[in-house]
Design brief:
It contains twelve helices and 15 strands. The protein is α/β, with parallel strands linked by helices. The protein has a six-stranded mixed beta sheet with strand order 5-10-12-13-14-11. The chain has a five-stranded mixed beta sheet with strand order 1-4-3-2-15, sandwiched between helices. The mean pLDDT is 94.
Length: 365
């Protein structure tokens, strides 16, 4: 199996179009045409991880955090990142990162935690905007069903828990082909009136090319008339964090004990002096999620859980919601499990393993 085939599959599950502007997800090192004979999944890429890949004969490393994040001006073996890059290239090891594209996917870390905490009626805490397009295409009646089906099969028409969504209306189209035309209906150089249907549907940005190609292939006209309109609508399937309700309300102390047990935490930093308060609505973000605290307040969450919370954030929101800082690594370490499950379900007979040397750089005394 080639590297690009695995990358394409990961992109279909966690689209690279979902990554933040500052991010650097995707294939960072390696030839897409390389034959892959083993995959190692890790959280961060360290020199120990490279050595583990070499020892286990794995030539594709898939990590959460990108190895190359900021611009590199030199690679001369003087830093850990430079040594990792040199060793990876010398040993023909490819490196792929699934970072904020995985974070922003509904089936990524936040969805996983929502399931682990048994949250009900979950939704994205901060959905993205400018991710959706309205596609309008005009089609002769006898081909409307085929074109509509092709659009749906390519991924258009999904709204929340519904798919195959479209609006259809009837009308007449007019056109006149010139001498170079090969019209599906009508005669060259004569204006033609054709009974048509207008199909309107929703397309996410990352599927635009796929959907348009499928539409054109299924459409009978030589020149397909269609409109693409960018929408300001929020995409409920994509974005940062998750919010949902517990099956039953719990005292804060009891909920934090459950959180500590399920996520195998050593410590939880929080901002409440009264842990008898009731917790019902829970907001969560893996990684550094302080930018989502206002979204948690807006969603009327009782608790916001994340990592890397600053001192003053604990103060500023003390009377509005319970904030629990569980640590950056601790809030996302399950990503190895997510990636492993995704890859082994698709490629069950492929050599794929979770790194033994993924470790938290932060230690507690």
């Amino acid at each position: 199996m080639k590297t690009f085939e695995i990358c394409q599959y990961l992109d279909s599950v966690f689209p690279l179009a979902y990554q933040e502007d500052y991010d650097n997800s995707g294939l960072l090192i390696g030839d897409p045409q390389n034959e892959v004979f083993g995959i190692l999944i890790c959280f961060d890429i360290t020199e120990k991880i490279i050595d583990e890949a070499i020892a286990e004969n794995k030539n594709l490393i898939i990590s959460h955090h990108p190895l190359i994040f900021k611009g590199l001006k030199k690679i001369n073996n003087s830093s850990s990142s430079e040594r990792i890059i040199i060793k990876a290239i010398k040993n023909n090891i490819s490196i792929y990162a699934a970072h904020t594209n995985l974070d922003n996917s509904k089936n990524g870390i936040n969805g996983y935690i929502g399931g682990l905490l048994e949250l009900k009626n979950t939704k994205i805490l901060s959905p993205v905007e400018n991710d959706l397009f309205k596609l309008i295409v005009f089609c002769p009646e006898d081909h409307t069903g085929n074109v509509r089906e092709a659009l749906f099969m390519a991924g258009s028409g999904k709204i929340g828990n519904y798919d195959n969504c479209s609006f259809n209306s009837e009308g007449f189209g007019t056109f006149r082909g010139n001498e170079s035309a090969t019209p599906y209906v009508g005669i060259k150089n004569e204006i033609h009136f054709e009974k048509e249907q207008k199909i309107e549907t929703i397309v996410p940005k990352h599927l635009l090319n796929v959907v348009l190609s499928a539409m054109i292939k299924a459409h009978p006209y030589e020149e397909v008339a269609y409109d693409l309109i960018p929408l300001k609508n929020l995409n409920p399937e994509v974005g940062a964090g998750i919010v949902g309700n517990l099956p039953k309300s719990l005292p804060a102390k009891d909920f934090l004990e459950i959180l500590k047990s399920k996520l195998q935490l050593q410590i939880i930093r929080h901002n409440s002096s009264d842990l008898s308060k009731t917790i019902h609505r829970v907001a969560y973000s893996g990684g550094s999620g302080a930018f989502l605290i206002n979204s948690a307040v807006r969603e009327k969450a009782d608790i916001f859980i994340s990592g890397d919370i600053k001192y003053h954030d604990f103060f500023d929101y003390q009377n509005r919601l319970l904030i629990a800082d569980i640590g950056h690594f601790e809030s996302e370490k399950m990503i190895q499990d997510i990636l492993f499950d995704v890859l082994t379900k698709k490629f069950p007979n492929f050599a794929c393993s979770k790194a033994k040397n993924s470790e938290n750089p932060v230690h507690y005394l």
